Amino acid sequence: MRKPAAAKPAKRVRKATAKPTEPPMDVAVGRRLRDLRRARQFSLEMVAARTELSIGFLSQIERGLSSPSLRVLATLADVLGVGIAALFGASPSADGTSDQVVTRGLQRPELKLWRTGVSKQLLSPASADNKLNLFLVHLEPGGSTGDELYTHDGEEAGLVLEGEMMLTVDSQTWSLKTGDSFRFASRRPHRFSNPARDANSVVLWVNCVTG
Question: Would the pTM of this model clear 0.90, i.e. be above it?
């Protein structure tokens, strides 16, 4: 007698893996940059020429496909004639209107630069027309603005509330501890970082747009 043929093992059906979505913050910032550029009737080519960034890179930022550094955002904000705060978008109050005087603690817009370990909470009411803006900057262990120094319009000052921050302006670097403060013209090349391996740093930061 012939033995019955062994049953063939059932084929495994591969589940379709969902395409990873871009971080919502990158998408929101990209959309805001695109809206500001279009409102000024700037082409991507024009912005690329003024920032020395490639058209492809700018397009990726606007579509939320690339997470820009603080240096890149500051450069783009300069070309668009706004401060960094304008990239946060409007902060509506409880009744749905824009509160131009008060920002409630639970309504602070936040800009998370997740690739670099830097996040900024906007403490002053958000508006593209504001010249003076107040931020609460959080630096994760090792978080920094990058190795390159950068410049932008305005003036800035701050106070270290928690932890430690390394601040470089021109060719000089300072280690700032809790309670230390600083001020410098933003046109001077600068960068900052958190040198700690296991502790965050928090800085109260003021930016004033002068141009």
Answer: no
